[in-house]
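Students often ask why inverse folding is considered easier than folding. One informal answer: many sequences map to the same fold, so there is more than one right answer. In these notes we will look at a single instance of the problem. The structure comes first.
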């Protein structure tokens, strides 16, 4: 029982920590509505589930132990973060209809983008390899390890969905911020650029 409670606490802390996946879910909810936010969260967790299966089957250990492969996956993730930054940059439009279309385009395919964001992040594999074994009782079966991984998935989906819905609910309030609201659309691309730069520094440093 204590291992389950420890796992729940760690899962909540990790999933509540802001990152590119959460930012994508919030941006999808704000730009395209609650359903897009939910689809983004599902895509994010499918990406995590790939690493859950990789951990259970031992493939994650192989990925982490192969520096070249690990670096290649990191570089793919960095490129995708840069792509997310580019597609989320606000574009000047001639009218509200065009602006709306641009907003929809910026968060198009939220499920696929959410999946690619996490499946191209090998640090998730490292997390499962270093943290999950410490929380699962010694000698636990493969099925129990899988159950813990799915629990992490459920925790992440719940947090990201709630953040997407919260972002959608708070979006109308930005109309009262005056000139400040013009800065808000630039937050996602700037954050994605910073994350990409930090990840690149981690690779070359």
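Output (designed amino acids):
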């Amino acid at each position: 029982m204590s291992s389950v409670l420890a796992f729940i606490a760690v899962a909540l802390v990790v999933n509540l920590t802001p990152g590119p996946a959460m930012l994508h879910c919030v941006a999808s909810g704000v730009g395209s509505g609650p359903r897009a936010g939910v689809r983004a969260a599902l895509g994010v967790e499918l990406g995590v589930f790939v690493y859950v299966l990789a951990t259970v089957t031992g493939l994650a250990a192989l990925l982490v132990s192969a520096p070249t492969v690990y670096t290649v996956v990191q570089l793919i993730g960095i490129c995708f973060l840069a792509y997310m930054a580019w597609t989320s940059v606000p574009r000047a439009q001639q009218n509200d209809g065009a602006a709306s279309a641009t907003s929809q385009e910026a968060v198009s395919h939220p499920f696929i983008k959410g999946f690619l964001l996490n499946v191209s992040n090998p640090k998730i594999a490292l997390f499962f390899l270093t943290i999950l074994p410490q929380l699962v009782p010694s000698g636990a079966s493969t099925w129990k390890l899988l159950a813990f991984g799915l629990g992490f998935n459920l925790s992440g989906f719940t947090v990201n969905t709630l953040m997407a819905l919260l972002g959608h609910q708070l979006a109308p309030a930005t109309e009262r911020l005056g000139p400040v609201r013009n800065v808000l659309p630039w937050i996602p691309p700037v954050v994605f650029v910073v994350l990409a730069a930090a990840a690149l520094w981690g690779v070359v440093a």
